[in-house]
Structure formats: structure tokens, C-alpha cells
Amino acid sequence: xxxxxxxxxxxxxxxxxxxxxxxxxxxxxxxxxxxxxxxxxxxxxxxxxxxxxxxxxxxxxxxxxxxxxxxxxxxxxxxxxxxxxxxxxxxxxxxxxxxxxxxxxxxxxxxxxxxxxxxxxxxxxxxxxxxxxxxxxxxxxxxxxxxxxxxxxxxxxxxxxxxxxxxxxxxxxxxxxxxxxxxxxxxxxxxxxxxxxxxxxxxxxxxxxxxxxxxxxxxxxxxxxxxxxxxx
Amino acid sequence: xxxxxxxxxxxxxxxxxxxxxxxxxxxxxxxxxxxxxxxxxxxxxxxxxxxxxxxxxxxxxxxxxxxxxxxxxxxxxxxxxxxxxxxxxxxxxxxxxxxxxxxxxxxxxxxxxxxxxxxxxxxxxxxxxxxxxxxxxxxxxxxxxxxxxxxxxxxxxxxxxxxxxxxxxxxxxxxxxxxxxxxxxxxxxxxxxxxxxxxxxxxxxxxxxxxxxxxxxxxxxxxxxxxxxxxxxxxxxxxxxxxxxxxxxxxxxxxxxxxxxxxxxxxxxxxxxxxxxxxxxxxxxxxxxxxxxxxxxxxxxxxxxxxxxxxxxxxxxxxxxxxxxxxxxxxxxxxxxxxxxxxxxxxxxxxxxxxxxxxxxxxxxxxxxxxxxxxxxxxxxxxxx
Lengths: 232, 385
Hints:
Shape of chain A: globular
Number of helices of chain A: 7
Oligomer: heterodimer
Number of helices of chain B: 14
Number of strands of chain A: 10
Strand order of the largest sheet of chain A: 6-7-8-3-9-10
Helix content of chain A: 25-40%
Largest interface: A-B, 36 and 27 residues
């Protein structure tokens, strides 16, 4: 299988006043297409920073970041934005749905950057909502949906442009157990049935158990990645 | 769903705030349209005054009458091409509030002096000369009152007391005159003798004397000659060109243009702060949403563009509404035939200047915020939710 993600000697530092704080140090990572990878680790370990690098939301200070065939460290800001639109679907802990739009319109947002017709955009958004089991909730605003439903709308939004890679940052961190299981079941189904490559950050070992591979991030380094589990 | 929906959604996010801000902008640009319209109207009035005609008033004050005998002496001065003594009175028709200027004058002499500004058919002028009670009225006044040639109109003239104690006079309308500026055709022009013989006060006097000149290049000399002629009399005169006369009238109420421009400037300056503050609040509240759009693949320029378009839409639509309201209302506000002032209008140039000001207010308000949105770091904006 081809590598969807390939990081070589990647370092990232943050500035805090006069201090430069290392977050990721000479990190290597490969994620194959069709993998479901869970990144675990304590707060401040660099998980989200790593996720942001993979999604092209921030840039590495050193090293090579190759995702979905593109060298992100070499793309201009404009090209990086175009690349994100084509290849990445984000799922955030707090859903980040626009409160003034209903679910259907929230899901349509990424399609505004495509050349699809208005009718085609609407059709694709309905299909994405159906995929996450919310076909009948398109007209509801986020405030009229439960947390679990909002997160499923966010997943539909992440999927609607058929991205190469789904990046999920604590997707169940704000959900109760039942809702979290629904969301995780959905992600696993997308991975298995749609062959979506997923990289998910989580604190929750139960959530990580849904992934096909788990890695620990600690002090900017990746831990043992030998644990490959058959998802339960 | 289109990108326009994103802009519209931003405006709908806080409907009350958007409505109040829009109302402020509508009001500001309504004031802009009205005030600048009045400003241009006044300038037009002053500009329209003929610089070659002379107006003779009393040097004491504008309200002090001059003896009618001065007309003959002025007519004899070298370079004078005609004189017309004007007895200016106010009259009302049916309703004391429905007032108009009534001018007693040698009608033929007046229309000869003002032949390029006041036009009436010769047969109507002749009819007025032959009928003592005849009057020629401005077309705008006639339309306003619903008068036509052949009508006999009773006019109440509070400033004129007749021997029988009344102050009513009747005039037979024998003609309608047009003016080069149609909105200023608001006088009822009557025969001087008819008015003069009816009144007890100020008999054989005039309020002003209009003077035509043979050589427009010599107006200053002729004006001086007229004033010199009466320098040692008890009725000293002040002779000015019509334009100087209007200018001096306007100067009596201060530098109107400056005051009006200052008001408009203050209104727009305040509006700038209001709009900038509203936009800043709106953008600050939506930082995570803007970061989300960027994460979805919207470019820095696209997100910045949304903010600029939002400001342009808010300011532009509200400004158009305010300016349109000014266009509709200003003529109604300023149509005062009683003062000899016709309806003023918001000129196209003022409308265009208002639209330009709205665009500038929008850009000055939005560009710093657009720059901020452009530089927005997605990761940190999303993590501070």
C-alpha cells in the first residue's frame, strides 16, 4: 500500500515570549492509505501539533511533510489552502458548525470551493448526511441537534468533498459514551467500507481501540507503534 | 448555498445589531443627501443670479423703502438701460399659511430687464399693461395653486392696509411666465399702480429697484454712479449686482456652505467609528468560524474578501436607502414658493459622492479587519474556542 502520510525528521517549536519551546523533535511517521491511526498521549505532548502539520494548518520548522502526494512544506499559502480543500476533511472536538446555517448548509460549505453546480452540491450534501444517518435532519440548525448529531454533521462535512485523509481531533471528547460510540462506529465504518484513511487524536483508550493502529506521542516523540489491533 | 449566503449569514448573525447599524447609516446618508442637496441648491441660487443686473436697495437696511421718484434719476444715469421699481409684499391665498411673494412693478419694464431669465408671451404682457388688475404669475406658483389664465384670485395681503381697512386685493391672471430656473417661477407680478394706489402705508415707494445696463462690463461703474447720485440725500442707496446681493443675503446667515459641510463631515466621521466598531465586534465573534473556513480550504484572500464584501453590503445598501430617501424628501422639504424658493433636488453628483463616501467608510472599516482575518493563524484560532 502507498503511504498516505510520510514525515521525515520533522521538528516544530513554539515561541513563548523570548523562549522557543520544542514541541516535535525530529519525528518520523508513515501512515498507509486506508489506515485508521489513533494518536494518544498526555496533554502538551504534541498530538494536536502533529495533526495540524498533517492537515496543513501549520508548517514544520524542519523536515519533510508529505501528505497525499504533496510536499506541504513546499506549498505556498494559497496552494496549501487549495490542497486542504481537495485532500483533507477535519473533524474537531467542538464540531465547529456555523450556528446560522442548518445541517444541510454546513455540510455544503466545502463544496463551495468546487466547480459543482448548486443542485449537485445540494445532492452531495444530502448524500453525506444520509451516510452519517442524519438524512432527516438537514433542515435543523446546530442548536436543534444533540452533541452526537452535531459531530455526525461535522463528519458529513468532512466527508462531502471526498477527501483523501480524515483528520479527527478528539472527536468524542465532548460527547457522552453512547454518542461517542456512535461516532466511533461511524468512523470505523468509513475506514472499513469506504477505505478512508483516518488519523485521530484521542485521550480515550476506548476510542483508540476503534483504530487499526495506535501510537503514543510523548514529549514530541512517537512511542512504540508495534501495537496493531484488530478493531473490536 | 452560495458564497453570498456566507455574507448574508454574517449580517443575520445579530439581527438587532445589523438593523440598528443600518438605521444609523441610513440616517447619516439621508442627512448627507439633504444637507449637500441644500448646499448645492444655495450655491445654484447664488450662481444663477445675474452678475450684470443691478439691484438698488436702501443703504440703511433692506426693509427700508426707497421713494419711487428715484427711478427717474437712476434711469437718467449714463449706461442704465431700464429701471423697474419693485414693491415686494407677501400675500396669501385662501389659507394664511398658503403664502407667496406679490410684486408690484411696471410689468413691461421688469420683463424687459430680465428678458433672458423671465419669459412671457408678448400678448400676455400687453394684456397686463392694459388691465389694471392684471397679473402674470410664475408657472410653478400657478401649478401649485391650480391657477390658469382668466382666473380672478383674491389675495390676502397683511402688509398692505387699504383705505377701507381691509387688506384683500383681487387680481386677474392674464399671463403665466417661465423662468430659466423653473423652480424659481414663484412670483405673482402685478401692476405697481394698482397696488400703490390701494395702500395707505409706503405709498409711492418701492422696496428695491432693478436696473438693466447697456454694457455688462461697466456694472461696477454704473453701481457707483447710482450710489454717488444719492450720496447726499436722505435716501442713500446701496447698489449691487444681483449676484452680490444674493451673496450678501447668504452671508448674513453665516458661511452656510462651511457650516453644512462641517455637519456632514462630523456625521460621516461618527459613522466611520460606528461602522468600524460594529464590524470589529462582528469579526471578533466569528474568529473561530473564519478559521474554520480557512481549514476547509478557503484562501486567506477569500476570507478577507468576505469581510470586505460584508462591510460594502452593509454600508452600500443602507447608504443607498438613505440617499434615495433624501432624493424623495428634499424637494418636499424645500419647496417654499412663499420665500421665492423652489424645490431643491439632490444632484447626481451628490448621490455619487454619497455612494463613494459609503464605499470609503466600508473600506476603512473593513480593511484592517480583513488584514487581521488574512493573517489569522488557523490552529491557534481554533484552539482558543
